[in-house]
Design goal:
Two copies of one chain form a homodimer. By secondary structure, chain A is α/β, with parallel strands linked by helices. Chain A is built from twelve helices and twelve strands. The interface between A and B is large, with 40 and 40 residues. The structure holds a DNA duplex (16 and 16 nucleotides). Chains A, B: One of its GO terms (molecular function) is transcription cis-regulatory region binding.
Chain lengths: 332, 332
DNA sequence: CTGAAAGCGCTAACAA
DNA sequence: TTGTTAGCGCTTTCAG
């Protein structure tokens, strides 16, 4: 592997000058620059990030942790991050927590060992002990949280307005003349699901209509049991005419259940999900949903991080993105 | 950030001894080891991989490139890789090519700059110029290809037996009494799709039955047009009673199309996909498919790489995994 | 605009 | 079993 040294030798320049060429330093004459670049080309020179990182304290690496990579939402975010970071000279490395606190901490640790310059993190469902995260914050290593944001003051974060999303979804059902709504609630230990719960309740309350009924059903963590619970609920309460599912996947399961029960969607029951997953557009009927603007979220998070990286004293930023109602066949 | 130096100072030991403790060298007395470990704990010491990498020439990083991370198959592979690598001391970094030769090369380049010790690569659909890859092979940097393997001799690779998968899928349709089969063909520039094509043809040929008909339809790259093409085909040839789609996603589109045309699945037409995507189990009817053993593939690829990393002179390995027929509602 | 030289944090001979 | 020391490839003062 050719290094800066060989280039120096060939061109008859010093290490310093050669180094400067690759660091866009303006303190180099065009002629020398050209000479160096040419030599670099010939030798197929690849700068050694490790060495540069060691010396300069800047690894040019950004670490990203998501719960799961095989997820429409998170991979959309990753794409947004990639897009934003691509021309900045930074490399990104991706790790998955698989919704486990332990794996999340492991990933954070290996980021620290790799001396990443900044971290983008969406915390796992399981994460309750924030000590590791607080340590990182204290160490001044720039970190931006997205979507799943820990309950801490003074952090950089990008979130979806989940309250608003649930509010919009519920409102949409009400606009479609639904009178008896069910909200299938996600794990309320996670703040975003709590927000959606509030949005659902408030949307109904705001109508101030005694004829409207809104109920919530909390699931176990076992899918089969959950489907059983929902099935029972639907049988017990035949007046249900609108369902707001906390996610598209559970929405799809509900859709299948409704078909099994010979309940017509949207005629008898209208169904709306959350997330705008890719498959929600492939079902029959296509499922109405709330789009989470994932690419934008990734871009924003990365953008805040890059700004902080440029100017460490940049103020902390919290960005709240607005969701978007996507009306499809299942509600009209 | 505390370093090895501070630990040496506190414990009164030399740098070398402290270093040895973290490298599992047995040349350290238990007492000193304990002392060092304790000090490390107190100082919250994180070894600096960069420095170690620079000195030892071993970055402890493995680079993984997949076409797309938001894909059931590839994320399954990533999980397999993570599993296999987790206790080896290596870190993995993931990059996406988004099916672009250019991005693939960019990723490869940043891997080289990061001095990864090994590469796991599934080449993009677009990749035709193999010079970059050949350069890497020549440089002796260990690389293992998986699933999408370039047409080169003397490489490490893990593949699915795509021929066999297609053969099994087609055979299954024939076993279900289908007489007029259609194969919706993937981009035959990619070798795996060519293999599936062969498997389809051979399965029919082997029956040696004049009453059997097998046709292939090659798609454009535009989904809407493609659906139109398939629609036309179905109308032109009402005797079609079995469809083998090269992937589950296109299979789902076909399923929706068939519903639109009021053709019953599996009664009138039996449909089988390829890939065992998560959603193929969520449709109605559930789609029969071929499982690609993605986790296993990731494990195998990582395992070959780790072996090569341990023993650079290890012989080149090619592993072919057997696919698995998954029979669901759409074919019975 | 260019060069000399120190040193980032760690590992690996070699010596003791 | 431990210590001494050189140096991985690069950046960055400081001095020309």
């Amino acid at each position: 592997m050719a290094g800066i040294k060989e280039i120096a030798k060939i061109t008859g320049l010093s290490l310093a000058t050669v180094s400067r060429v690759f660091n866009d330093s303006t303190l180099v004459s065009p002629k020398t620059k050209e000479k160096v670049l040419k030599a670099a080309q010939e030798l197929d020179y690849q700068p050694n990030i490790m060495a540069a990182a060691l010396r300069s304290g800047k690894s040019k690496i950004i670490g990203v942790i998501v719960p799961e990579v095989n997820n429409f939402f998170f991979s959309g975010i990753i794409n947004g991050i990639e897009k934003m970071v691509s021309d900045s000279g930074y490399n990104i490395i991706i790790a998955q927590s698989h919704e486990s606190q332990e794996k999340e901490n492991e990933a954070l640790n290996s980021f620290l060992k790799l001396k990443v310059e900044g971290i983008l993190l969406s915390i796992s469902k399981e994460t309750s002990d924030l000590s590791q995260i607080q340590k990182i914050i204290k160490s001044k290593l720039p970190i931006v949280f997205f979507d799943r944001v820990p309950n801490l003051k003074n952090i950089n974060s990008v979130m979806l307005d989940d309250y608003m999303g649930a509010f919009m979804a519920t409102n949409h059902l009400l606009d479609q003349q639904c009178k008896h709504l069910i909200h299938i609630v996600g794990d309320t230990k996670v703040s975003i699901f709590k927000e959606r719960q509030k949005g659902f309740n408030d949307a109904i309350a705001k109508r101030n209509d005694k004829n409207l009924k809104g109920e919530s059903i909390t699931l176990s963590s076992n899918l089969k049991e959950d489907i059983g619970l929902i099935k029972k609920l639907l049988k017990d309460k035949p007046n249900i005419d609108g369902i707001f599912a906390y996610g598209d996947e559970i929405g799809l399961h509900v859709l299948n259940l409704l078909k099994e029960l010979n309940i017509q969607v949207p005629k008898q029951i209208k169904l709306i999900g959350f997330g705008n997953a890719d498959f929600s557009n492939l079902t029959q009927p296509k499922i109405s949903t709330i789009d989470q603007e994932c690419t934008q979220m990734g871009e924003q998070a990365a953008s805040i991080l890059l700004k902080t990286l440029k100017d460490k004293s940049a103020s902390l930023k919290t960005k709240v993105l607005s969701p978007r109602l996507v009306v499809r066949d299942s509600t009209q």
